[in-house]
Specification:
225 residues, globular, alpha/beta, 6-stranded mixed sheet
Length: 225
């Protein structure tokens, strides 16, 4: 009954997103059949319940290629942007944010772009929490896409970044991994730039994992703990 009541309150585009976006991926499904989006969000701070989205960047990845033409970037209109440390990092000033799209409009377009996709990101749990809190406020529904964290993938599959058991060991940062891999860093601390850089890193990691297994990847190779 409660599921029916919730569904009846969702806008049609949210219903379509939820119906076409499974929470889990068949682990036997070939990597070449999977559709990914590399995602990054810039925010007013680091508390998903209190802070707000400022910009979102998205880059599609499919069949081993980055779809540069399909990249998207949204500037989210916020009228009360604090001039804090987060703003100093991404450089989105209050005046610029005031010129963005309304948040509900951005989230509607974003859900359409995320429908049926696997979300890839560096420390993606935070970005997904921020966006999920925003979609809950706007539509009564959180994100349901499967998530892949390139920091966690790196820790599992790149010897230089393996977990050591040291209590204070931090997850590897995007800059240090790209430096190790010899990958260019594009537009650091901009949502689209970080999404593109993460997409490059993701494909590099997939290549390493494929070589290690000696066969074409399957979904389970990426989601395996």
């Amino acid at each position: 009954m409660w599921d029916w009541l919730r569904k009846s309150a969702w806008p049609p585009h949210v219903v379509a997103y939820r119906e076409q976006t499974p929470r889990r991926v068949d682990p036997k499904r070939p990597w070449s059949e999977l559709a990914f989006v590399s995602l990054d969000a810039e925010t007013t701070g680091f508390d998903p319940e209190k802070d707000r989205l400022l910009s979102i960047g998205l880059v599609p990845v499919a069949d081993g290629r980055i779809d540069v033409a399909g990249r998207r970037n949204w500037l989210v209109r916020q009228t009360d942007v604090p001039n804090n440390e987060a703003v100093k990092i991404h450089g989105i000033a209050p005046g610029e944010s005031a010129l963005g799209q309304p948040e509900t409009e951005v989230l509607t377009e974003l859900l359409a772009a995320l429908t049926g996709k696997i979300i890839v990101g560096h420390h993606i749990g935070f970005d997904a929490a921020m966006i999920g809190t925003a979609t809950r406020r706007a539509f009564g529904s959180r994100l349901r896409n499967p998530l892949l964290d390139t920091a966690a993938l790196t820790s599992r599959h790149v010897d230089a970044f393996h977990k050591t058991g040291y209590v204070n060991q931090k997850p590897p940062g995007l800059d240090e991994i790209c430096s190790h891999a010899g990958l260019p860093i594009v537009g650091r601390h901009t949502a689209t730039g970080d999404a593109f850089t993460t997409a490059q890193l993701f494909l590099w990691l997939c290549g390493r994992i494929r070589v290690r297994h000696g066969r074409e990847l399957r979904a389970g190779d990426l989601f395996k703990a």
